[in-house]
């Protein structure tokens, strides 16, 4: 499964299914939720109305109607109340319920919006730390999962969560497994912010080389690697992505 973190408009995204951060009533609450309903048309609103709502942590599915996506998965993230009311476990349930519904419909290309970080006010870094492990570890059966971010801030938060996930995998790997884990990390991180399958081969090769030059020294550090080692390497990887983005805009 390829995971990609991309800035874009989920209402025009060419995935088989998109995941909407909905309200319990399944009626529009403004923001991205409202734009999805508007793009889907009156039939999408009627389909949601007929379902009679959805509890927090659960998900329901409708057709996409006028949206490019065949299906819309509506999941209800919890309101943030300081983090002591099981908000993160409820958010985790949203992702698992959404993945389950997508599998039932044999979806191969799935796109998520940033669940719970709008009017539900879940801090972006906390939301990303919940989302990324479950998608990377339980996203089996999908060919591609996209995070379609509305802002650079969202894209960077989910990107950092992926970077830290793979650095932790390298850090925890047994000596005899570290090469395999390192290659998996390089493959995943090379395509992470790739906007299309037809990316210019030279740009992809440059990305892979830059990541290899950054991750190999980290993997070669003596165990246990410190949190400072992880944070320093993560910053270097983020710098690689930002430089690649600057070059792409210049071209």
Automatic annotation (TrEMBL):
Domain of life from the UniProt record: Bacteria
UniProt xrefs under SUPFAM superfamilies: Macro domain-like
Domain Macro: 1-166
SMART domains referenced in this protein's UniProt entry, alphabetically: A1pp
Protein name as annotated: Appr-1-p processing protein
């Amino acid at each position: 499964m390829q995971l990609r973190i991309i800035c874009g408009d989920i209402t025009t995204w060419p995935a088989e299914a998109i995941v909407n951060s909905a309200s319990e009533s399944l009626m529009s609450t403004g923001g991205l939720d409202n734009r999805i309903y508007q793009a889907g048309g009156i039939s999408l609103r009627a389909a949601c109305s007929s379902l009679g709502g959805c509890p927090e942590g659960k998900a329901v599915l409708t057709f996409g109607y006028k949206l490019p996506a065949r299906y819309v998965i509506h999941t209800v993230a919890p309101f943030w109340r300081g983090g002591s009311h099981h908000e993160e476990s409820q958010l985790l349930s949203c992702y698992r319920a959404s993945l389950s519904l997508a599998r039932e419909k044999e979806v191969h290309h799935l796109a998520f919006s940033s669940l719970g970080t709008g009017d539900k006010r879940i801090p972006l870094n906390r939301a990303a730390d919940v989302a990324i492990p479950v998608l990377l570890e339980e996203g089996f059966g999908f060919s591609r999962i996209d995070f379609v971010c509305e802002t650079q801030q969202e894209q960077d938060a989910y990107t950092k969560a992926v970077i830290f996930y793979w650095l932790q995998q390298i850090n925890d790997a047994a000596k005899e497994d570290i090469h395999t884990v390192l290659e998996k990390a390089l493959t995943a991180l090379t395509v992470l912010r790739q906007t299309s399958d037809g990316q210019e081969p030279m740009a992809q090769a440059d990305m892979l080389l830059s990541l290899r030059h950054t991750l190999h020294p980290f993997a070669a550090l003596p165990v246990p690697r410190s949190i400072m080692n992880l944070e320093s390497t993560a910053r270097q990887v983020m710098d690689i992505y930002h430089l690649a983005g600057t070059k792409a805009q210049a071209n």
